[in-house]
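Title: Prediction job returns without error message
Component: structure pipeline
Severity: low
Priority: P3
Assignee: unassigned

Description:
Job completed but the reporter wants confirmation the result is attached to the right record. Sequence as submitted:
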Amino acid sequence: MSFGDGGPSRSPPAVRVPHNRTMRAVTVSEHGGPEVLRLTEQDRPRAGANQVVVEVAAAGVNFIDTYQRSGAYPVSLPYVVGSEGAGTVVDVGEDTTELATGDRVAWAMVPGSGACEYAAIPVDRAVPVPSGVDLSVAAAVMLQGMTAHYLVQSTHRAQPGQTALVHAAAGGVGLLLCQMLSGAGVRVIGTTSTQDKAERAQAAGAHDIVRYRAPDGETAGVDLVTEVRRLTDDHGVDVVYDGVGKATFDAGLEVLKPRGTMVLFGAASGPVPPLDPQTLNTAGSVFLTRPSLAHYLQDREELLWRASDVLTAVERGDLSVSIGATYELDRVADAHRDLESGTTSGKLLLLP
């Protein structure tokens, strides 16, 4: 299915939703822990020019939400939490012809569009959802699915015969990476913290598993290096996909082949300390990149390409999306705590 062919059939002309109604939304007025999240009542948004208003069916919970809440990523206060979701268009702005009421759409990286019952979405950020994909699944896969897509398709192009180390292989992005990489003929070595997570990663396509964290929670980086070297006959891996950061970064550099690539795309355990470039030479003239999804969505054409690939793979059954837990709006704080604890697997969703 292509999203560049005009999209789904059009609904009847828009019937505007009265704008004196209110909605529930989770807001942050001061930075801090999960306790600063507040369920508030606000006016429903109005569809401005080149916007649609969507009734939110499901919204993704992501680490960036916790970074913004804590103040690690500065945002203007107050703000509505979340930036990813899926739902049904209920109102369209003036001169909007690409979408109509009744259309099912998904989006990612739209600030203030997640933990709320209705959201105003720019038309150029809204992606049609195929009829065979549930809106909850679409919300669960947009940000993480397109992240895995650019990591495998663009940052380090997956090729048959390569070996990749995927940290946090049972996480939301990790499970998708395991599927995409193994599907491309790449041998995947995944790291997990528990046996249950190891089994999930293997079911997603990981060929080998390294338990990088002991049951008491202590990181065992030396054991990680030893085990990966053993699994690769001391050759190392072609690429490391690291969304964990501080706890795994140094070990990842040690297991790269000469001229291998370290792809650092997150910091779940904390930011990586400043690095002397000479370290990359010592590790074997390896490459280091710190990509982000925004730089791999340069225009609407690229957005539709990545989203279409991901959602079509889901519709065909080629890509499985794991939803780890769902939460009502009044339990957003629990969702943030669970995500930050490192004990979750798969995607966490809010159901407004």
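Comment from assignee: result matches the submitted record. The mean pLDDT is 91.
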